[in-house]
Design a protein that fits this description.
By secondary structure, the protein is mainly α. It has five helices and no strands. Helix 1 packs across helix 3 (37-45).
């Protein structure tokens, strides 16, 4: 597996864990961000390389800095 793919998978796992930690469903996330469900699912599976603006919005929604969002990724 390529290094960038590993990073995407780790980020996806991090997003899934944070969403669950906050008691949110995938549908809650897509409603909040106006993503399609399939787009958000691809983020959580690590099948997409999100833009910085998307990461910033996600971090803010969880009350985190970008550094905190990406910690351990």
């Amino acid at each position: 597996m390529a290094a960038d793919t590993k990073l995407q998978k780790k980020l996806g796992s991090r997003l899934r864990a944070l969403r669950k930690e906050h008691g949110l469903s995938q549908l809650d996330m897509v409603r909040q961000f106006d993503f399609s469900l399939s787009h958000y699912q691809k983020l959580e599976r690590g099948d997409l390389d999100p833009r910085m603006t998307t990461l910033a919005r996600l971090a803010e929604s969880f009350g985190l800095t970008m550094s905190d969002l990406l910690a351990g990724v």
